[in-house]
Amino acid sequence: MLSIKVNSIKMKDMMREKRLIELEEILGIKLKIVKEGMADIIVPRLEEYADKYGHIDPARAPVFYNPIMEANRDLAIVCAIAYKKAHSRGELTICEPLCATGVRGVRYALEVKNAHKIIMSDISDLAVKIARLNAFINGLTGRIEVYKNEANRLLLKYAQKDLRFDVIDIDPFGSPIYFIQNAIRALKHKGLLAVTATDLAPLVGVYPMTCKRRYFAYSIRSPFSREIGLRILIASIIREGALLEVALIPVLAYYMDHYFRCYFIMSRSISQVDRLLDEIGYVFYCPNCGMRWLKKGIIPAGEAKCPICNGSPLIAGPLWLGRIAENEFIKAVIEEVDFRKKEIGSYRRIRKLLDRLHDEVEMPPYYYRVDEAFILRATKNEVSPKHIIEILVNNGYRASLTHFNPKGFKTDAKPEDITNLLYEHSLKAKQ
Ligand SMILES: C[S@@+](CC[C@H](N)C(=O)[O-])C[C@H]1O[C@@H](n2cnc3c(N)ncnc32)[C@H](O)[C@@H]1O
Ligand SMILES: [Zn+2]
User: Which of 166, 231, 257, 275 has its CB surrounded by the most CB atoms within 10 Å?
Assistant: First the structure.
């Protein structure tokens, strides 16, 4: 019934209110058409699903569509393009096993040249219908297949030679961890795995027990919890790979709008798995004096005392202590982003993110904040991170901004070096 009606609808008609109303009646949901990237996408009219205070939560709509995630999707497209070029992949097959409206898959098909087959699935009937409609109105029915299936089941169906994908994009509600192993099984050697996590509360230390159960790691509340959370997620995904003797090499990972996103290249090299595991360890944080230090290895972190003030540190991990992005990959992505500047809705946000990542990628795996107690003792009032970075760099330290927090900065200087310099600087300023 639905397919007969849908097939008779041409794109230009679809734009007409009348057709949309017809579809709304068939599907029993309020709809609208939005433009994202090169795609026209039928999505739920979110305003209709606001709560009694008028607050819009995309998760309340019968099918999920979050306009704020456009930046996530923009970057997903560009990363797939950069990956394709960097790894000289020919035609790409892409899988999005939690597709909702299908916006992401449709955009992959339209915007990634040579993405010749896109397989999508969702557990929701309505999502599958809308995703098929979106493939149809964008003229992609030959290249996109949409199935009603549970993500793990779908991935397992493709976990065999000749069926595996070049790119798999896991974009769920909450944690992606339940899907990683089957995604690995369905991914080609040197394939690209893209992962979103929106369960930040466990990862940043608000629900540490949930973090322990889900990621087998301690998360803590600290001034740099966002970075700890992202690094716990990366380590946990790497461990899922290690169980299957597969290396998942992080090429780009970041925090934005209350989610984490990570891109990995998969390799079946055992020595690479071992090298990755060597980069996992713990971060120690002394809330008393602000000191942070690291310990590599996934043996239990054990008891510790702060080497500066003898205070009791908080311990986070196991977490990833290596780079959260590869320089070459960032450069390739920046090049693509600039090339597509006019087509990318979130160009400015993405460009800023990539610039920050580029600057911070070689820095220690933690950051400081200008509003931390030990810094405020020296500065009295909050100063800008750029000001502190200038002082540090002028005194021979490495320092950069960080994408994790607008009040944050990274440096190889120790907290006492930072405060000494800040005191010195304020004394000079007074003279
Ligand atoms: C966050 S939404 C996906 C958003 C989409 N990737 C995008 O870019 O707009 C998550 C989707 O996963 C679906 N879902 C939840 N659990 C699932 C499962 N186990 N298998 C397949 N789909 C699932 C939900 O119905 C929902 O549509
Ligand atoms: Zn201390």
Answer: 231
